[in-house]
Amino acid sequence: MLEAGQVASDRYRLQQRLGRNAGRQTWLAEDLQTENSQLVVVKLLAFGGDIQWEDLKLFEREANILKQLAHPRIPKYRDYFSIDDRTLWFGLVQEYIPGSSLKEILEGGKRFTEVEVRQIATQLLQILLYLHGLHPPLLHRDIKPNNLIWGKDEQVYLVDFGAVQDRAAIEGATFTVVGTYGYAPMEQFGGRAVPASDLYALGATLIHLLARTAPADLPNSDLKIQFRHCLELDPRLANWLEKMTAPALERRFKTAKQALEALELSFQKNSSFSKNFHFSNFIAQNFSRNLKKPINTNIKINHYSKFLEIYIPRRGINNLNDIGNIVILAIIAGFLPFFVLATPVFIIVLLLFYAAFYPHLKQIFLSTKIKITPHIFEIKTNFLGLSNCQRGITEEIQDVSVNYQSTGTSSKQLKTDSLIINTKSSSLRNQFTRYFFGQGLTEEELIWLANEIRGWLAERSKI
User: Are residues 287 and 155 in the same domain?
Assistant: First the structure.
């Protein structure tokens, strides 16, 4: 039985057990034959019992593969030995990387930011570029937070090559099924791992870091990991993660190079605003510093350096017309149980009445929250307990303007209706999208609100 303080192979003094499972142990040890007794990691396999020849072959293969690798973010191979201490032990010695696994960091309460996750993604993709570019390509097949070390040099290291596959998938060949549920894609469980399988595992790992929930514990629809509902992500990062974790191989990035280029292309501009953004000049020209807040408005605006927050509360009941509209809504609601027995004409009339009074009811009961960050903006509404959320990319904003509607036969008879954020997506063939909010506000409130948003965007564009 191996214990702390014991010297293995007359060279490695075991210090602290790092991990143990089914006949395998991992120890932090001192290499007594090096200057200052350098720390190393010793992985030990106890042959016999549940450990059979296939396990030993995998262990030896890991050692042979590590001998061939030379990458600064992969622990270096040091030694391979066997000891007979009533149990036959095989040992693999690797370079020790001071730091903690991403799993340990998560369990310590760390919340990874989008910037940190993009940095981790970039570093891991560069490692995969190296592994997949070897001849033959090497597939790690077990990328997950537990196998990623955040070093004290603030670099990410890929460890544990026990599941590595040292040959490319060949049609008709059969391979050992390995991987961790939630991180490994379906083709890997079918014994058909390819380079894109490692990309899936990386994408699932990044989702875990952001959501602080293992992929297997997140909702799943048509084999897709559902993560958008629990995260407020930059849409570009969310779209990239969805492509990384697409269940179908043909919808996933095929190579690490392709995934890395897509990530860099999405964020090739500064993650904050720059003076060259297409909206900055137009918005700056249409921003007035002299526009004052309307008297008696209930709108609340909080200006922060990193985001703008706006809250438009429910207007509530102000007059007899509001009371009348609520009474009509109650009458319509009272007839709902009779819809099954009602004639089509009666149903149509009832629906027409509801459509006519719906805008008035929205003005009474609708509340809106708007949040604009350098990456994304969100418009969340709540109407009689029903919530809705619209999201867009801040960098694609073209203008913020007041929407006017005609009130008569003449096009000159107009009234204010709402506020519009107009966006233009260059990635979707210049697709234009309009986001409406602020229904029921006065013209003075709408103009002031548009000006406040333009002002914040203009200021951010100078940073």
Answer: no
